[in-house]
């Protein structure tokens, strides 16, 4: 997987393309690596540098730990999960947000400028549990949700932190009841601001919420009314299917039940009624997947958007083209391992999180313990929704932990963040991974720029 991108950019520049144009299509060094042949042994690396990385030009450092949070007086129940940044608005990219996936869950915010991490939703607020999801909204707030739903449950809720940048330890934490209740993990907005989500259970479905006010400037307006749909592949009533996707409504345009899903409504007490999204999906024949978890959306060069869905139990990742409504198997155990040239097999186990770098490359994070927990790079050169190969990009050593929440910085394409969740030590951590250019490529690039300058001077003299 080793490439010489700066050198290529310089070569393109010599053919009459500016250096800025040459680099525009190749924005990060994270895809410049030598794939790891195997997982790192459990416990072989310190918690201060828990990952074996696939390039000597990658570095890692700890920028927050649970122990430090507790020592500074911050309430922190641990199990740090998915993360996102403030991707729009004032100080965009300055803060990272993540929930606690515990029985007394909360939300914390890390200031990447000052290095201070603060709990902004106190653990147990509104009996919040199993915080998992993390997504920045188009109007500038933060969404999280509960990975907890079942018979007689009071959970499965989507919450909005409406003032995530406020200087407070008690952020406004609002339950958005228009969304049916499910066991949440992945959340993703498409270009039309439709919100996709999943039900993380064996037999769980994929959903889409279409707001009656997609361009809303607040969550109050966006979640005031809207319609929820479930994906049905090849007619639905099936499992782990690929093919043509139809979106079947389970609510009206205002969020009320339809005749066919009325029995999915549940009295949650206190005059609150919510829809059981799992039951409603089954009532209309929604296609089932086996523990669908994270979601990410990629925009292709032609403008099409592709939704990627990790399914942990079946060791698969699916791709759904939202323009053509076609579901494909993106990665599975039959996908080639770039190191061996044969099917990856059981080396690829329990895909959980998905992340996308600045070049549009897909990364898949395993839900595995230290010594088996790998991050895979999926090669899909033609962007047809089916990966040609996978490569082991990083491997985590920490015993008892899993890597979670991989997030590529939208404002610095050579920086990424990942959590080490629930280690045996109890000291969850936030790790920053940085990619830097190869020295020889950088030298070639500078030489190319020098030659470009010489050519420009010659043209100016003519």
How is the topology of this model organized?
Elements: H1 5-14, H2 19-24, E1 51-53, E2 58-65, H3 66-71, E3 84-85, E4 95-99, E5 107-111, E6 117-121, E7 135-136, E8 142-145, E9 158-161, E10 173-175, E11 187-189, E12 195-198, E13 202-204, E14 206-211, H4 219-222, E15 226-233, E16 243-249, E17 265-269, E18 272-275, H5 277-284, E19 289-290, E20 292-299, E21 305-311, E22 316-321, E23 326-331, E24 336-337, E25 351-356, E26 362-366, E27 373-379, E28 389-396, E29 402-408, E30 415-421, E31 429-435, H6 439-461
Parallel strand pairs: 24-28
Antiparallel strand pairs: 1-28, 2-31, 3-4, 4-5, 5-6, 7-8, 8-9, 9-10, 11-12, 12-14, 13-19, 14-15, 15-16, 16-23, 17-18, 20-21, 21-22, 22-23, 25-26, 26-27, 27-28, 29-30, 30-31
Helix pairs in contact: 1-6
Give a nutshell description of this structure.
The protein has 462 residues and is mainly β. The protein contains six helices and 31 strands. It has one domain: TolB, C-terminal domain (Neuraminidase, 6 Propeller).
